[in-house]
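User: My instructor asked us to take a sequence, write out its structure as tokens, and then describe one feature of it. I'm not sure where to start. Here is the sequence I was given:
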Amino acid sequence: MSRLQRAVEPHDWARGPASAPATLLEYADFECPFCGRAFHELKRLERGLRDRIRFVFRHFPLAQMHPHAMLAAEAAEAAGAQGKFWEMHDTLFTHQNALETPALLAYARELELDVRIFSRDLNERRYQTKVRRDFLEGVRSGVNGTPTMFINGTRWDGPYTAEALLRGMRGDPSMIVEPMTGFPWSGDA
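Assistant: Let's start with the prediction itself. The structure tokens for your sequence are:
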């Protein structure tokens, strides 16, 4: 099992409390269909675990296979600069087949971003360095495809279903476990 080479840092995109018993870090590509499937499972996991999980996202655009992945990652960063990273993250995964510049600008308008600044950031490739840093750190951690996930710093090589990820987190004694299932789960509420 490989280990995460760079721990979660304040500039990483994270949601959920830092004190959560489990941290799930995902390296993903917004244009990757496997990441798109994992996205829906991760949403289920987040709804079920609520404040018992911290979810961290890092970019790993496979640009040779997915021609729009790099620009989509930069768009997420540009939205993040305006306080809407997670909204753009969700939008990009929901609309994986429409990641060209006009679509990205439309998403920025829908999210009520300052489209002039957003467009400038994309044109100037302002966040390319940050995206590349995530990618290179992923390579150093053994990432060679997407999605790649780490649970509490250890690479997860199992399936990306919510149930399988829960089983992967089970070894953490601080997790609250439901007696009927044995899983740290509070439902799909």
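For the description part of your assignment, you could build on this observation: The chain has a mean pLDDT of 90. Try explaining in your own words what that tells you about the chain.
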